[in-house]
Amino acid sequence: MLNSLLSPNTQWVLLSTLILGMAAGMIGCLAYWKKQSLMSDALSHAALPGVVVAFALTGTKNLLFMIIGAAVSALIGAWLIGWIRSSSRIKEDTAMGMILSVFFGLGIMLLTIVNRTAGGNQSGLDNFIFGQAASMVRKDVFTMLALALLVIVIVTVAFKEWKLFLFDPDFARGLGLSSRWMNAIYMAVLVLVIVIGIQAVGVILMAAMLIIPAVSARYWTQSFRTMVILSAIFGGGSGLIGTLISTLGKGWPTGPFIVIASSVLFTVSLVFGSEKGLLIQALQLRSEKKKQVEDPSSSWTKVPAIREGE
Amino acid sequence: MSVLKVQGLHASYRKNKVLHDVSFEVEQGSLTSIVGPNGAGKSTLLKVMLELHPKLSGDVSFFGSTLSQTKTRVGYVPQRGSVDWDFPTNALDVVMMGLYGRVGWLKWPNKSHKEKAMASLAQMGMADFADRQISQLSGGQQQRVFLARALVQDADLYFMDEPLAGVDAATERAIMTTLKNLKMSGKTVMVVHHDLQTVEDYFDHVLLLNRTVVAHGKTEDAFTKDNVYRAYGGSLRFMKEA
Amino acid sequence: MTYTGWILLTASLVGLSCGIVGVFLILRRMAMMADAISHTVLLGIVTAFLITRELNGPHMLIGAIITGLLTALLVQWFHSRGVQQDASIGVVFTTLFAIGVILIATQVGNAHLDTKHALMGEIAFVPWEVMNVPLLGEVPKATFMLAAVLLVVLVVILAFYKEWKITSFDPALAASIGIPVVLLHYVFMSMVSITTVASFDAVGAIMVVAMLITPAAAAYLWTDKLSIMLVLSGAFGVISAFAGYYVAVWLDTSISGSMAFATGIVFLVSFLLSPKHGVLSRYLYRYERPDQEEQQIDAVS
């Protein structure tokens, strides 16, 4: 393990999954509050045909072209989901499921053809399905790093705008913030993170990098800023740990180990989280019951009127 | 005779307590409106009584017995917005659903069920729409289908969640006629209602609710300015302006 | 039967059972649950294999049902603890799937069970893995399992048809008249699980989602009657299976990928051309729903 740590290539790979995890964690918070967690899953599957087409057209495994291809096909997928939902009786989740699986099917079709015709040297393409960070070369790592940093900068620079856009889009519009532009930028950074993440964790598990850190962060805080920071830390941390573990075994896929690392963090947050964790809730319930025994009216009169849900 | 008896009912929604120590009794043949501000727990009260939403504590008894033993005698009309009207089915079929509990397991509805459903649709003035896909019905017509479905259940006690919300004037009249007929034939009806101005005209009893019972009784006794103000608090003024 | 015959029969069985189950999936707004279960079932298969050290039908079905139910329960539980529904699906299925993949990579090391196979299926191998069935003679294992699953699905759907209908349309009413909504939910999740696992050999984990959702969604655009929707959805599934197979042979590519893509084409045609709910007819007739007009009036008054 020490040996592999010392190898400069591994260090670069570790750095890139760290930064990627941070970027995904941050964007994941945006997706969570846009209630689009599974959209990221659909989009990462939808990216597959684009990757394959880009490879077939250029004939080389050039990361930049593949990212462009992936982005184009993911955006087509997103547009189709929106179109199907808005102009028929099909609901959004059905539309997402269809785009996800049909695009993936198309991707597999194309991938099989490309593998057969181009012959040899395509094992790299299979990695887009499961992810193999260890096989990345220096140049890929640089491209990924640059793009992930770009995403992080976009989120940080316009932080208060994002906050407004997510929590109160109408108010944001009143302040002259164009929700169409914000939506476009949001979609662009989401797709960007997905397509660079695919290289490391694969199309199937990419969604986990976006969803799990954000959900875990929710258990520690009520503040959006803290949530984004925590989610970035969780995402980066699990990227780092997962990649490290996957270098221990030969041919071990990176993606699943990153996901497991982040699920462990999630479980810890679920149990011990200071905001809504199981432990703290159990304790609260206990003290509440005590209070109720002492003064039955106190526990409900203090609660502000809420809107009646379902 | 009291057909419904609620004692010390507590319930919460998510982490918030929405019902606190709700107790009341409902007499047979009464037509009661449940009135209160948004978030007062009106829909939740119906759901908790019907065991569709868990209660924290308290007792609910129907006809002096439990709900599970009197299920066929209790009818429920959910909010119109609670179902997907794009569901591939027609008006008649929706009304037939009211009979599913009675048809029994592993059996298919037969002709007599169908006739009952048709009669009930006709009663709501919807006979011509029996074959119409439900998304092709107007909001008022959809509500009438829901009412027809409740009628076909032939229950003794009905709970209705905002049946008059967002319907046209003709439907409102048709529904109120139906409710009054139900009352005449000795049935008991509880309706979640949102329009304070029609409470006195439409209902003989009122239950003012704001997480607990503010007032309950005959409309002329309970529906006083004072009580309404107590139930709505400051939000009433706001509502009138809006 | 010929090699091609077996493949077409197997694929048609996938199309039929997925098409029928899929109708209720989309009507119950559980399309993404199907995606989740199709992934997590992998863990069930791997676990069943690690325990019994053999890959056979009944063990796999039991493993699939257990993980399918586990998925549904966990999603429900996290949701009740305040996690958004779809985030909760995302957390559960990626985690269970990742565990499955890791188990395969580190524990199994067996040619019969690899992730790629489970994800993409290999229907071309199906006719070679045969078993002896009384009266029928030699039948491919996967085909036999699919036929059995289809039979179960048909019996359960038909026997409780009205219950499926009412719990899908109005669960609150269903519960209020004493129908066990929660129990039926988990029975349904079990059906999705066994359909998925039986289709695994043929089309794999992700393309099974296409077979489950897309034909049903296409059928939803042609009819307003549930029974017709079920028939149409099954038919679309079979059509996609046939079309997918022949396209795959023609292009010499992945059969399962091609079948998934074919369901997409069937949907696209329905989406554009369906006389009832298609884009073209909407455009031509400027179709507007009556209730929308009324809602506008309501808003004014």
UniProtKB/TrEMBL annotation, chain A:
Transmembrane annotation, as ranges: 12-33, 63-84, 96-114, 141-159, 184-215, 227-248, 254-273
Tree of life domain: Bacteria
Region entry Disordered, spans: 291-310
Transport in keyword set: yes
Pfam families recorded: ABC-3
InterPro entries found in the cross-reference section: ABC_BtuC-like, ABC_TroCD
Compartments it resides in: Cell membrane
Single GO biological process annotation from the record: response to zinc ion
Keywords assigned: Cell membrane, Membrane, Transmembrane, Transmembrane helix, Transport
Gene3D superfamilies to which the protein is assigned, alphabetical: ABC transporter involved in vitamin B12 uptake, BtuC
One cellular component term from this protein's GO annotations in UniProt: ATP-binding cassette (ABC) transporter complex
Signal peptide limits: none
Topology within the bilayer: Multi-pass membrane protein
Keyword Transmembrane: yes
Broad class of where this protein is predominantly found: membrane
Function: This protein is probably a component of a manganese permease, a binding protein-dependent, ATP-driven transport system.
Family according to the record: Belongs to the ABC-3 integral membrane protein family.
Protein name: Manganese transport system membrane protein MntC
Organism for this UniProt entry: Paenibacillus lactis 154
From TrEMBL, chain B:
InterPro entries registered for this protein in UniProt: AAA+_ATPase (IPR003593), ABC_transporter-like_ATP-bd (IPR003439), ABC_transporter-like_CS (IPR017871), Metal_Ion_Import_ABC (IPR050153), P-loop_NTPase (IPR027417)
Keywords linked to the UniProt accession: ATP-binding, Nucleotide-binding, Transport
Domain of life of the organism encoding this protein: Bacteria
PROSITE patterns: ABC_TRANSPORTER_1 (PS00211), ABC_TRANSPORTER_2 (PS50893)
GO MF term set: ATP binding
CDD domains: ABC_Metallic_Cations (cd03235)
Protein family (similarity comment): Belongs to the ABC transporter superfamily.
Descriptive protein name: Manganese/zinc/iron transport system ATP-binding protein
TrEMBL record, chain C:
Swiss-Prot/TrEMBL keywords: Cell membrane, Membrane, Transmembrane, Transmembrane helix, Transport
GO terms, biological process: response to zinc ion; transmembrane transport
Highest taxon above the source species: Bacteria
Pfam families: ABC-3
Residues in coiled coil: none
PANTHER family (alphabetical): ABC-TRANSPORTER METAL-BINDING PROTEIN, METAL TRANSPORT SYSTEM MEMBRANE PROTEIN CT_070-RELATED
Protein's recorded name: ABC-3 protein
Organism annotation: Paenibacillus lactis 154
